[in-house]
Amino acid sequence: MKNLQVDIVLEILGRPKDYIKTALEQLIERLSKEKGVKIISQKIHEAKEIENKKDLFTSFAEVSLELDSLSSFFGILFAYMPANVELISPEKIELSNAELNELGNKLIARLHDYDAITKKIIVERNIALNELKKYAPHLFKKPSLEEEINKETQKNEAKNQQPEKKSKTKKD
Predict the structure, then answer these.
(1) Do 31 and 84 fall into the same domain?
(2) Which residues contact 75 (CB under 8 A, 6 or more apart)?
(3) What stretch of H or E contains 97?
(4) What distance in Å separates the CA atoms of residue 37 and residue 73, rounded to the nearest whole number?
(5) Is residue 83 a part of any domain in this protein?
(6) Which terminus of the chain faces fewer neighbouring Cβ atoms within 10 Å, N or C?
(7) Quick check: 18 and 49 in contact, CB under 8 A?
(8) What is the DSSP letter of 53?
(9) pTM reported for the whole predicted model
């Protein structure tokens, strides 16, 4: 198979501002050491502060790659999770059954890994939740409808009992 030319966008979010550029440089350096990957060009854009977020910055890098196989292509997608990917060439790709089987099995293996991680996190969350219920059950007690009505009534009564401010009017 012919080499693949691919453009990707790597994006990063974090703080402090200076770290963002360093992190992108390190990510690109790690990418350059991947088997079957050659970096053709790269451009790291200046980090910018996120609107309405104090001291949180984002930046991105545009990276052109030459990859030796579809396996490398999908490996990069899974390992680096770029914000965007564009296959430049070749325009058409021909695959053998063996190549497609290899890609399919790698995809399935990765999905199984993610599934296992998700299930583990769910079990750990449930254990933590049960412990919390055991030691702080009051946090999980839902008020009855009657209790909610009483609480709302008390709030309204307290509001009504506050003396009203009299407005001063000028007599003629």
Answers:
(1) yes
(2) 34, 36, 106
(3) helix 97-135
(4) 9
(5) yes
(6) C
(7) no
(8) S
(9) 0.67
Q: What is the CATH number of the domain that holds 50?
A: 3.30.70
Question: Going along the chain, which residue ranges are E strands?
Answer: 4-14, 37-44, 48-49, 57-67, 84-89
Last residue of a domain, one of 62, 78, 94: 94
CA distance 67 to 73: 6
Q: For the segment 41-99, what is each residue's pLDDT rounded down to a tens digit?
A: 999 999 999 888 888 999 999 999 999 998 899 999 989 999 999 999 999 988 889 98
Residue with token string 């088997």 = 35
Question: Token pair of 57, please?
Answer: 């910055």
Q: Is the peptide bond before 90 cis (omega within 30 degrees of 0)?
A: yes
Do 71 and 136 lie in one domain? The reply is: no
Residues 86 and 118 in one domain: no
Do 75 and 17 contact (CB within 8 A), yes or no? no
Q: Is the same domain home to 83 and 24?
A: yes
Beta bridge partners of 67: 4, 37
